[in-house]
Amino acid sequence: MADITREGYLFQWNMPKLPKCQTEWPSFRHDPQQSGNYDRDGTPPSTPTRLADVGGKLLFDAPGDDYRCGTASRYEIVTSSSPITPSNFADAKPLANPPKPQPAGTQQSYTLPTHQRYVAIRAIDDVGNVGWDAQLDTE
Fold first, then answer.
1. Which of 11, 27, 109, 123 could join 45 in a cystine, given CB atoms 3.0 to 4.6 angstroms apart?
2. So where are the chain's domains?
3. Which residues of the chain have pLDDT under 50?
4. Helix, strand or coil, per DSSP, at residue 90
5. How do the residues of the chain divide into helix, strand and coil, expressed in percent and rounded to 5?
6. Contacts of 68 (CB under 8 A, 6+ apart)
7. Nearest-angstrom CA–CA distance, 80 and 78
8. Residue 116: half-sphere exposure toward Cβ, Cα within 13 Å
9. Is 52 left (phi over 0), alpha (psi -120 to 50) or beta?
10. Taking the chain, what is the end-to-end CA distance rounded to the nearest angstrom?
11. Looking at residue 79, what is its pLDDT?
12. What's the DSSP call for residue 139?
């Protein structure tokens, strides 16, 4: 880190790398909802990444509980004959027995039961924050 004073002096400090998962407030007024309440968990899980359908298995990298940190509480996996979006996710047919979430970044798999063309998955954390869904066209 460096700083220049108005007198023209240059100060430089060596700073340690910040940890990937900080315990401090992630934004102004603590959380994405600007609550200002330190005890509130307002940070949603991130989106599952690297979705693929390999031989009838849905492969993906696990999201975290707070963005890419920690472990989400559960997944919702749905299917539909038309593209799935955040606005119609609730209208899609839920698929049974989603896998137990693993720590962020872990590759996970789910054997797809009978499903329609489109599949989507999203994570939910322990206080009910819902992450963005990730969609896959299985054809």
1. 123
2. 49-137
3. none
4. helix
5. 0, 35, 65
6. 20, 21, 46, 104, 105
7. 7
8. 15
9. beta
10. 50
11. 95
12. -
> 3-state SS of 7-64?
CCCEEECCCCCCCCCCCCCCECCECCCCCCCCCCCCCCECCCEEEEEECCEEEEECCC
Q: What is the pLDDT of residue 57?
A: 94
Choose among 3, 124, 139, 6: nearest CA to 66. 124
CATH topology for 49-137?
Immunoglobulin-like (2.60.40)
Instruction: Check residue 130 and give its pLDDT.
Output: 94
Q: What's the Cα-to-Cα distance from 125 to each of 10, 30, 49, 101, 102, rounded to whole Å?
A: 45, 18, 17, 10, 12
* Contact assessment for residue 97 and residue 39, using Cβ atoms and an 8 Å cutoff: no
Q: Provide the token pair at 12.
A: 């430089």
For residue 89, the model assigns a pLDDT of 95
- Do residues 123 and 110 lie in contact, with contact meaning Cβ atoms separated by under 8 Å? no
Q: pTM for the complete prediction?
A: 0.78
